[in-house]
Every structure is written in structure tokens, then in C-alpha cells.
Amino acid sequence: MTSQNCPRTSLLAVSQLMLALSATPVLSAAIPQGDVASSGGSINYPYDYSSLACPSSKLATLATPTYGDKGGVFTVCSSLKIAAPASVVQDAVLDFASYGRWNSFVVAVSLPSNVTETPYVGMPMTFTTAGLVAGINTTSDEILTASGYEGVGEDGKPYTLSAWRYDDKLAGVGARAEHPIVVVDEGDGTSWYLSWETYYAGILTPGIALLRSKLQTQFEVQAADLKTYVEGL
User: Fold this and answer.
1) If we measure between CA atoms, which residue out of 60, 64, 75 comes closest to residue 29?
2) CB contact at 8 A, 67 and 168
3) Which segments in the chain show pLDDT lower than 70?
4) Residue 121: what pLDDT?
């Protein structure tokens, strides 16, 4: 298996031809305003993220902590119940160095040399992913934007929010995307897991949209992989 740059960049030519598509109006899913309570740092758009669910329409998008709910082009999303405590699930989500042990989508994560265990907001990472382009692995540069942000939903259930955004090295002109993960403590030793990535208008976004179905499939595979991994710990 060989590796090359993320298809976000390799599809630049296609993206430029399809740039007009990024101006297509997109409906945003309704987002409750504000957490009941939160701690662990600030985010740009402090919604009750535990109340979200994967969009039922392909035209709907979900908000992200950095970019909010405006300008989204499409969202890929997966959710499921995990028979493991929320703390165990959250630890696995942020243990990037161990992704290769269980994750068949993000098969490796390169971290700064000074990071051994605890990730930090602003930390750069390089993800190596499989399954998007036949026969090759792809890479993307990411920046951690939320690390176990703690909140309590309107239903009284505590949750954590972690997220990372794509770094296109062009200040977001090429593409903006963010991948949040919410882990809700169900109160009975189980967790509800929601993982999504919203892609926003940019030069590369129409080209990335060509991979939407594969991204959706891999998000579902990743969620199932995580469930199997943490339930087996």
C-alpha cells in the first residue's frame, strides 16, 4: 500500500471546474443554542452538542465548534451506542497514538515529538487514512480544536466534545472542514457516540464532495471499529 497527499489536494483541478457548486444553498440542521453547563475551555460556537443527531437529509449539515452552522456544504456522520463507560470511550478517541491498533480508517496518526500521552488544543497531527482511494493510503494535516470539552446537555446527561479541523495550509481558502466527536454518558455504564465532519465552502470542497459516499462509509466503519475496541477492553 503506497501513500500520497490527501485527495483534498489531489482533486484541486476537479474542484476548480466545480467551484460554482459550492455556492449551492445548503440547509443547516436545527441547533439548540447553548450548553446547560460546560467546562474545560472555550469553543467558538458553544451549543448543546449532545442534542445533535446525524442529519436525515443529505442537504442538512451539522455545526462544528470552530466554524458553526453557516456555510456548510455537506456532512458525513455516524452514531451508535457503546457498551462501555464514557470515560473509556473518550480516552480511546484522544489516544491518537493507538489508532493503528483498532482503526481501519485512520490507520496511523503522526504527533509532535514532545507529545507522549496528553494531547493539547492547537496540536498539529497528520492522519493517514485508508479506504478513500483504491490501492493507496492518503494523508491529511489536522489541528486539535477541542480536547475533552465537558458539557451537560439539556437532558441532564454529561458529555465530552473533542474535535480537530483540517489544515489546508491556505488559511481555509482551499478547504475548511472540522471533525467533532461527542461522547454522552448514559448513566448506566454505556455511552452514546456521535462523530461527524462538516465540509465548508472552499476551492477544494467540490472535489472533496466526490468522495462523500466513501467518507460516509469509512465514518461508519470507524465507529464500529471503536465500539469493538472499547467493548473488548
Assistant:
1) 60
2) no
3) 1-42
4) 93
